[in-house]
User: Which sequence fits this backbone?
């Protein structure tokens, strides 16, 4: 099945926006375009239902129902129960709150494993637990390739390790880590698994139930939605961790780890992500009643399109002696988030691409630890070229032509 790209792009108002015309967008890892169902739901909520939800009057009742719909539909697509999915202001803040819960749950002498492949959101908050007497063990990447070797994790695991935190894929390395296999290793050692999925989920909703992660976090605004963090915590762990919200919410798992009140409109708008996945499924496949299977089919459809577009870009960059392509050179092994080290700073290269109609970014992308581990100066940073399934082959061709001028 081939992705109907014209249909896809018709679901994103940005492609009909005159101010964005004649631009190719390659900074999707920083935030994707929002799809029309999300924008429509957000607009409707502000216009018709911007009141405190869950009261018996009509506008309030409907607002609460839309918020519940977002949670239930996304949870079903992700293969988890609705009460295992929570919304928060961002993945960074969600992870920080979780780390405070673990601070109270763990005991001095317990150990946790973190990586130097992560975005700071899934590294810094866990590393701070060392202040409470928690032993910190670092699962280190290969300095040449950025690869996380599971064999190296095995050497770190013992009966003192209570948590293993790692990314589904890094926002600068791009390599997709085998979450299911790593989760088995960690669980066999008695540890909880926390996965940062921010850089993976824009390329297809994962089946979190099948992956085996105890915690899985991602950002809706990088997944065609509003600026919300989405957090899955499996029920047994959520019940065991101490409450971080109001005392009267301690028994409600969807509120237990979100101390601040939710952004009602943005939570409701997240149902638009599910709308969009269902639109893609209906366009490309026969009807399927199971939302988990619908999401899996769309996941594979998106990734097949992205993989075909990514390989020519990887081949082009790998053939250039003046640049260092970070991460795997085979598209099947990675997400289309491609970091390049060159003689010029990453931000300067992005600025040079802009007159060619290429929207890209440069810097450290809150990934100073992995860059430093790969001997890249974080202050000079990298040029990052990232896309999702709504990108066209002609955009990649245009990017390569522009890179010929800039590099």
Assistant:
């Amino acid at each position: 099945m081939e992705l109907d790209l014209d249909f896809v792009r018709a679901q994103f108002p940005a492609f009909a926006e005159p101010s964005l015309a004649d631009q190719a967008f390659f900074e999707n890892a920083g935030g994707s375009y929002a799809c029309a169902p999300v924008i429509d739901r957000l607009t409707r909520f502000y216009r018709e239902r911007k009141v405190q939800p869950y009261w018996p009057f009509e506008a309030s009742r409907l607002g609460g129902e839309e918020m519940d719909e977002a949670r239930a539909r996304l949870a079903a697509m992700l293969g988890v129960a609705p009460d295992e999915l929570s919304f928060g202001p961002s993945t960074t803040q969600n992870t920080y709150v979780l780390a405070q819960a673990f601070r109270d749950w763990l005991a001095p002498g317990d150990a946790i494993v973190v990586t130097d492949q992560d975005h700071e959101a899934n590294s810094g908050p866990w590393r701070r637990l060392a202040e409470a007497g928690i032993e910190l063990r670092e699962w280190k990447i290969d300095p040449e390739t950025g690869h996380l070797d599971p064999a190296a994790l095995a050497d770190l695991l013992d009966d003192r390790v209570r948590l293993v935190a790692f990314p589904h894929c890094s926002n600068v390395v791009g390599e997709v880590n085998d979450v299911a296999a790593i989760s088995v290793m960690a669980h066999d050692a008695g540890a909880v698994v926390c996965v940062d999925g921010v850089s993976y989920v824009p390329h297809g909703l994962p089946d979190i139930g099948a992956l085996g992660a105890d915690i899985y976090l991602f950002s809706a605004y990088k997944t065609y939605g509003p600026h919300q963090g989405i957090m899955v915590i499996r029920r047994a762990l959520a019940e065991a961790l101490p409450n971080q919200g109001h005392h009267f919410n301690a028994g409600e798992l969807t509120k237990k780890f979100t101390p601040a009140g939710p952004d009602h409109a943005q939570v409701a708008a997240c149902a638009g992500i599910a709308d969009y996945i269902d639109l893609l499924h209906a366009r490309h496949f026969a009807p399927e009643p199971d939302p988990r299977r619908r999401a899996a089919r769309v996941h594979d459809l998106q990734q097949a399109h992205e993989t075909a577009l990514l390989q020519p870009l990887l081949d082009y960059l790998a053939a250039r002696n003046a640049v260092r392509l970070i991460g795997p050179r085979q598209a099947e092994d990675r997400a289309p988030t491609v970091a390049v080290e060159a003689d010029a700073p990453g931000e300067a290269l992005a600025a040079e691409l802009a007159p060619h109609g290429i929207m890209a970014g440069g810097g450290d992308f809150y990934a100073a630890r992995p860059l430093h581990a790969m001997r890249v100066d974080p202050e000079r940073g990298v040029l990052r070229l990232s896309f999702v399934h709504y990108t066209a082959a002609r955009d990649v061709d245009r990017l390569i032509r522009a890179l010929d001028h800039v590099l």
Summary: The chain is about 40% helix and 15% strand. The domain at 5-34+290-406 is CATH 3.90.1150.10 (Aspartate Aminotransferase, domain 1). The longest helix spans residues 291-318. The chain has a mean pLDDT of 97.
